[in-house]
């Protein structure tokens, strides 16, 4: 594609077709499932904007999606598959909570920084393990990342419901972290907090790394054509391992900011679905960090809409999973994109 | 399930436990040989488990439940395959779609028709019949280990043989494997490789549906996430089995034996339930990494 503007128009048209199909599926399934379809549709599409509380919470749920979207983008850019997002997000949240509970009386900024840092490093190592196996023995990272993630989920479940459970609370969760580690709320009464700024900084950082540094150039080149990259003198083994480190670190941060900013403790299964959604966000954004933000917004909207429809009407929240499935089915279709490409060329 | 009536309960249970791995494994093998890694096995098992038990309760018939359950799952596999192959979508991403659809669709239907997203228990149809040969019961060991399983267990063994025969002894199997080896060459030979891949995916839908049905029809109930990672273990089983039906049979037995043993050990040592759930994932990762490390070493030597 010579004309880069043309190319991005094609990309955008393809994405819009997919999202339109998803919207159609929402409406059709609501008509099938709901006794009061029109009000259910209203709650689905308008509910997330109904008041400050809903709007703020929806915007807050964009934050972890931005992090996982970035995390998966880093892996995809290097043609690596990280299917372990679920476990990495969960581990990130669990480790951030554990660190904050271990050092309960440091100044807020230092404690927050340490929690985020340790969570990111652990997440990087978890995903990096799959990258390492791939680099060393060509073990399929797609399968190992998923299996390791699931093993982690159950192991963390054990700690949260067992030795680390807060006995004073009915919730299956760790104890609350000290209040100086809570990220500042900026849109009361909702949970929206300054982690949204950390997320925007992460987007800028990722964009800079991927597109403005030599490291990012080599990473993208290894992803596009590893043989070519190898002939160009790039150590492609390195770009099997490093993207997984980035990927795991960002995924873990998604969990860590949820704990420090929203829940203030690690609740059992709090990350359910965030890892998979990160994959969808990265795909909608075509792995471009800048586009991760609108893609994450869209996804947060679907979740919030399904949630609002569940609370106010007679459908269940899993309706969101069906919508997501439609997006996953169509978003990578080359036929859909090519149909626009031909028109764009004419 | 420790059957105290059997003198080799660990092995007897392992034969039951291996069935979903085996069935999903041989279906996954067909897609694997046609050149696609099918990570939708997990979702297809879940769909098979759900729809077979739902249709069995609607019709009141075990057989019709199994039949419609299998057909529905094959239909969803067909959609998955058609989108992947004819709309040229990424096979991993569409497979994730199947897995998401499976958890979403089962919860939505369950909530809409039964008012719950929890366990669905039915008692208006028979359990899977258990196969017994009184004549063989008296033979020690063999009778203990190989008799007294439900019919899907035996169907699984039969299918391993059928799949081996079709894949390696018929022109169809040869062509299907040819598609996996060289997609373009098969196209040049005048075959339609896309059709073979689509059929492979639908076949995997068939065996995964049986795998799922063996879980739900056996207890007459559907439990959310009843597949609990078996589709992923089946994927690893395909690799460890060297991508052959016999290898898959052996590998799924080894995994099942490990699981059966850990269930059995529960009786003596108190291991937290979460660790029992994590256990299959840990041993599959370890096994996968070990085998790939050994393969790499062999490659270096040769």
Would you mind describing this structure in some detail?
Chain A is mainly alpha-helical. Chain A has one domain (52-300): ABC transporter involved in vitamin B12 uptake, BtuC. Chain A is built from 14 helices and no strands. Chain A has helices at 4-33, 37-46, 52-77, 85-102, 108-137, 141-161, 195-212, 214-224, 226-231, 238-263, 274-284, 289-312, 319-330, 334-345. In chain A, helix 4 runs antiparallel to helix 5 (108-137) and helix 7 packs antiparallel against helix 12. By secondary structure, chain B is mainly α. In chain B, 75% of the residues lie in helices and 3% in strands. Chain B has 13 helices and four strands. Chains A and B meet through helix 5, helix 6, helix 11, helix 13 and helix 14 of A and helix 3, helix 4, helix 11 and helix 13 of B.
- CA radius of gyration of chain A is 21 Å
Average predicted local confidence, pLDDT of chain A: 89
Question: By helix and strand content of chain A, what is the structural category?
Answer: mainly alpha
Task: Report the biggest beta sheet of chain B as strand number plus sense, adding barrel if it closes.
Answer: 2 strands, antiparallel
Biggest sheet strand line-up of chain B: 1-4
Strand content of chain A: under 5%
Topology of helices and strands:
The complex is a heterodimer of chains A (346) and B (302).
Chain A: H1 4-33, H2 37-46, H3 52-77, H4 85-102, H5 108-137, H6 141-161, H7 195-212, H8 214-224, H9 226-231, H10 238-263, H11 274-284, H12 289-312, H13 319-330, H14 334-345
Helix pairs in contact in A: 1-2, 1-13, 1-14, 2-12, 3-7, 3-10, 3-11, 3-12, 4-5, 4-6, 4-10, 4-11, 5-6, 5-10, 7-8, 7-12, 11-12
Chain B: H1 9-33, H2 41-59, H3 62-86, H4 91-114, E1 120-121, E2 130-131, H5 134-137, H6 142-146, E3 149-150, H7 151-169, H8 171-181, H9 183-188, H10 193-219, E4 221-222, H11 230-240, H12 245-265, H13 273-301
Antiparallel strand pairs in B: 1-4, 2-3
